From TrEMBL, chain A:
It holds the Pfam family Sigma70_r2. The keyword Glycoprotein does not apply. It comes from Flavobacterium pectinovorum. GO terms for molecular function: sigma factor activity. GO terms for biological process: DNA-templated transcription initiation. Keywords: Sigma factor, Transcription, Transcription regulation. Belongs to the sigma-70 factor family. ECF subfamily. This is RNA polymerase sigma factor, sigma-70 family. Residues 27-95 form the RNA polymerase sigma-70 region domain. PANTHER family: RNA POLYMERASE ECF-TYPE SIGMA FACTO, RNA POLYMERASE SIGMA-70 FACTOR ECF SUBFAMILY. InterPro entries: RNA_pol_sigma-70-like, RNA_pol_sigma-70_dom, RNA_pol_sigma70_r2, RNA_pol_sigma_r2, RNA_pol_sigma_r3/r4-like. The keyword Iron does not apply.
From TrEMBL, chain B:
This is Anaphase-promoting complex, cyclosome, subunit 3. The chain crosses the membrane at residues 85-104. Keywords: Membrane, Transmembrane, Transmembrane helix. It comes from Flavobacterium pectinovorum. InterPro entries: TPR-like_helical_dom_sf. SUPFAM superfamilies: TPR-like (SSF48452).
Length: 194, 239
């Protein structure tokens, strides 16, 4: 693997992770108008644009917090492409008639495509994970939630009125259950793809 | 489910193994791809859980902040209308329109758009007595008292920041010509107070009920001005 060169626009990603209002405002001022223009030109209105942008911003926050988002291209192209693809997906979902897409050629940027795909995969993974988590029993859900919010397992044990040894073991097994399901899902997917 | 395995994974991640246990664990990782793949997934699940719950509060704070910025950006009337008197004004306008059956519109007033911000000069290091006095006077809206204080500070320390607050004080104290001079100077400069000064020049015109001049000045304010929403609202009301 080669050394990845981080683009200076990484400051936007870090700003989002830090909930920096100035950075959020800057993103809206600099990059959002283009998204609004595109969505309005492609069967949407201002409210659609606002929703798409908000969802993408939350997704970026999550990925940034996960420390898996490293910008190697300008934020502009990356952000626009993410919003655009999100909107086109929404369109596909809601309309069964053909939609004419008005492309502006200037917005296609190869460097952004790969990053956008990574972010979309991250999103899929997160959604899959959330769905799996909800399949767990109530006890597991509660224990995991506490373990990762409080962090001290002694306190978790106290709170649940059980022994330290029990919460430790149970935590491993609950994570194990999720691991197993995700493994199975991955195997299923690769079978399907072969 | 391979319970023992998951317990070992957790022990390894929490760094609770003896040196021998650790070595044998790492040996197995290197030699058994199935074991390694499962450990990788386990680690991922761990990370996902950390992201999901560890940042819950931060995520909520982010969402709240995001919605604020977003609504401001998209100029949602709901946010502007938060002040209860707006509803009253809107209702009154509707009634008037109904009564007189013509498009009644009221010109905006200076008071509606006059919200001088607070000054914070003295949080940075050395506290100068006069500066502190000026700040206190300004923030408690005692502009008559603040003006001479700003004048004496400006003799020694002619910064755009002090100039700006001096200008605002003059405007509040109805010393229109002097205020205009100060804002015009700032407007032709390059400081961060440039756009704010232009906004205040528009307010001067609004105060004088010179709506056309007010509009013209507003149109020169660039869109990236931090309070551009206010500019847009005033422009709309001037129409």
């Amino acid at each position: 693997m080669g050394k990845i060169k981080i683009h200076p626009d990484q400051k936007y990603i870090e700003g989002l992770a830090a909930n920096n209002s100035a950075i959020i405002q800057e993103i809206y001022k600099k990059f959002v108008p283009k998204v609004v223009f595109y969505i309005k030109n492609n069967s949407g209105d201002q409210d659609h644009a606002q929703d798409v942008v908000q969802e993408i911003m939350i997704l970026l926050f999550n990925q940034a917090k996960n420390k898996t988002l490293e910008l190697t291209c300008p934020f502009d192209a990356y952000f626009f492409l993410l919003c655009k693809r999100k909107w086109l997906n929404e369109l596909k979902k809601t309309s069964n008639k053909g939609v004419t897409i008005h492309e502006d050629v200037g917005s296609i940027n190869e460097c952004g495509v790969e990053l956008v795909e990574q972010t979309e995969q991250f999103n899929e993974k997160q959604q899959l994970f959330d769905a799996m988590f909800l399949k767990l029993g109530d006890k597991c859900q509660e224990l995991l939630k506490l373990s990762f919010t409080i962090k001290s397992m002694e306190e978790v044990a106290e709170k649940l009125n059980v022994t330290y040894g029990y919460v430790r073991k149970k935590k491993s097994l609950c994570i194990g259950q999720l691991t197993q399901w995700i493994q199975e899902n991955n195997n299923f997917k690769s079978l399907k793809n072969n | 489910m391979n319970e023992e395995r998951y317990i070992t994974f957790d022990q390894y991640l929490q760094d609770e193994m003896t040196v021998e246990e650790k070595n044998s664990f790492e040996k197995q990782l290197a030699e058994d791809p199935e074991f390694a793949a499962e450990f990788e997934t386990f680690k991922n699940v761990h990370l996902q859980l950390e992201t999901k719950f560890g940042y819950e509060q931060e995520r909520e704070a982010f969402k709240e902040n995001l919605i604020k910025v977003s609504d401001k950006h998209f100029n949602k009337p709901k946010v502007i209308a938060l002040k209860p008197w707006y509803y009253g004004a809107a209702a009154a306008a509707v009634i008037l329109m109904g009564l007189f059956f013509y498009n009644y519109s009221q010109k905006p007033s200076f008071e509606d758009f006059n919200h001088p911000e607070s000054a914070y000069f003295t949080e940075r290091g050395n506290v100068e007595a006069t500066l502190k006095q000026a700040e206190t006077a300004f923030n408690s809206k005692e502009y008559k008292k603040a003006i001479p204080l700003f004048e004496s500070i400006l003799k020694e320390n002619h910064t755009p920041e002090i100039q700006y607050f001096y200008g605002v004080s003059l405007l509040q104290d109805n010393q229109i010509i002097k205020a205009q001079n100060v804002f015009n100077q700032l407007k032709s400069g390059t400081s961060v107070y440039k756009d704010k000064a232009t906004w205040n020049l528009a307010l001067v015109k609004l105060k004088q009920k010179n709506y056309n001049a007010c509009r013209e000045i507003l149109l020169t304010i660039p869109e990236d001005y931090e309070d551009y929403v206010e500019v847009q609202i005033l422009l709309r009301e001037l129409e």
